[in-house]
Amino acid sequence: MDLLYDHLVRARATGAVFARTVAEPPWGLRLGGSIQLAVHTVVRGRGWLWLDTPGSAVELSPGTVTLVRGGPDHCIGHEPGADCLEPEEFRARHARPGPGDNPQATVFLCGAYQFSGEVGSGLLDALPQVMTLSAAIDDPLRDVVTLLSRELVRTEPAQQIVLDRLLDLLLVLAIRSDFRRSATAPRWYRASADPRLGAALQAMHENAAHPWTVPELAAISGLSRAAFARAFRAALGQAPMQYLTEWRMTLARDHLRAGDLSLAQIADAVGYGSPFAFAAAFRRHHGDPPGAWRQRERADADTRTLATHPDP
C-alpha cells in the first residue's frame, strides 16, 4: 500500500455521473459548485472553461484533461463568456447520440466525482481550483480518454461499471501527475517518497491502532530517534506523535460521520485503550466529546440537505 492509494480508498471516491456530448456552436453549460470534483476532456474540436472571475478562462482541446474542484460554479462553452444553460436544458437542446456531422461541433466528456469524509476533503483541498493536464501521445491519460469516448458512443451490458473504472483511472492518473510536479502537493505525499520517512508513514497509515512510539518508528526508518524526529518535522511540519494523533482524529471523525462503528469500536480502531481514553483525547482535540460532535455534524448535514433539496 502507498499513501495516495490509502487516501483514495478511504475517501471512497465514486463516479457519480459521466456523459458524452456533441454540441454545435453556440453552446454553453453551467455546472454547480456542489460537484466536488468535475472532470472534463474534449475528444474533438475546441471548448473553453471558466469561473465567474475575470481572466479564469482555459482552453479545452483534445489530449488535455481538466479537473475542477467544488466551490464556485464553472462554465464550459464554445467561447469564453458564452451564454450557458443549466444541465437539464443543455441536454435537451444538445441531445445527439451519434458523433455529429458538423465539423464545427465539439465532442466532449464530463464526469462528476463524489468523495467521502475528512480524508476525501483533504485530498481535494490539495488540488488547485482548476487543473489542466496535457497528455502526450504515449501518456496513459490519452488512452483512457479514447476508451471513455468509445464506450460512451453506444450502450453495452455492464457499461456503468466500465465507465466508473475508467473514470477511476483518469482521476488517479491526473492526481498523480499533478502531485508529482506541483510544489504545493501535500506534505505527506512528498514525504512518502523520502526513503528516511516513507516506511514509517506507511506503517502509521496501515495500522493507526498500533501504540507507536518515536523509537519504534525511527527503527523502521533505520535512523536514530533524534535524526528521525528532525527529518520528520522538517518534511511534515510537525512531530511524529502529533502527526499520528491528527491522522487518528481524521479517521475517528470519518467513522463518527458514517455511523458505522460504536464509540468503543472507534476507540479500538484508532489506537485508544478504552472509549473513555478516546473520548478524552477527542475532547482535547475538538472541544466536544465524540457523541456530541457526531450529533452536531448530523444536524448540520440535515440542514445542508434541506437547503439543497427543499420540499416542493
Supply database-style keywords:
312 residues; alpha+beta; four-stranded antiparallel sheet; Jelly Rolls; Arc Repressor Mutant, subunit A; five-stranded antiparallel sheet; single chain
How does the SSE layout of this entry go?
Blueprint: H1 3-11, E1 14-23, E2 28-31, E3 37-44, E4 47-51, E5 58-60, E6 64-69, E7 74-77, H2 87-93, E8 106-114, H3 117-125, E9 130-134, H4 140-153, H5 159-181, H6 187-192, H7 198-206, H8 214-221, H9 225-236, H10 240-258, H11 263-269, H12 275-286, H13 290-308
Antiparallel strand pairs: 1-8, 2-7, 3-6, 3-8, 4-5, 4-7, 6-9
Helix pairs in contact: 1-3, 4-5, 7-8, 8-9, 11-12
Describe this structure as you would to a colleague:
This protein is α+β, with helices and mostly antiparallel strands. It has 2 domains: 179 residues, Jelly Rolls; 114 residues, Arc Repressor Mutant, subunit A (Orthogonal Bundle). Helices cover 49% and strands 17% of the residues. The chain contains 13 helices and 9 strands. The strands form 2 sheets. A 5-stranded antiparallel sheet has the order 1-8-3-6-9, covered by helices on one side. Strand 4 and strand 5 form a beta hairpin. The chain is elongated, with a radius of gyration of 23 Å.
Q: Using the coordinates shown, work out and report the CATH topology of the largest domain.
A: Jelly Rolls
- Principal-axis shape: elongated
Radius of gyration: 23 Å
Q: What is the H level of CATH, i.e. the homologous superfamily of the largest domain?
A: Regulatory protein AraC
Strand content: 15-25%
| Overall strand count | 9
CA distance, first residue to last residue: 47 Å
CATH architecture of the largest domain: Sandwich
Unreliable stretches covering 5 or more consecutive residues: none
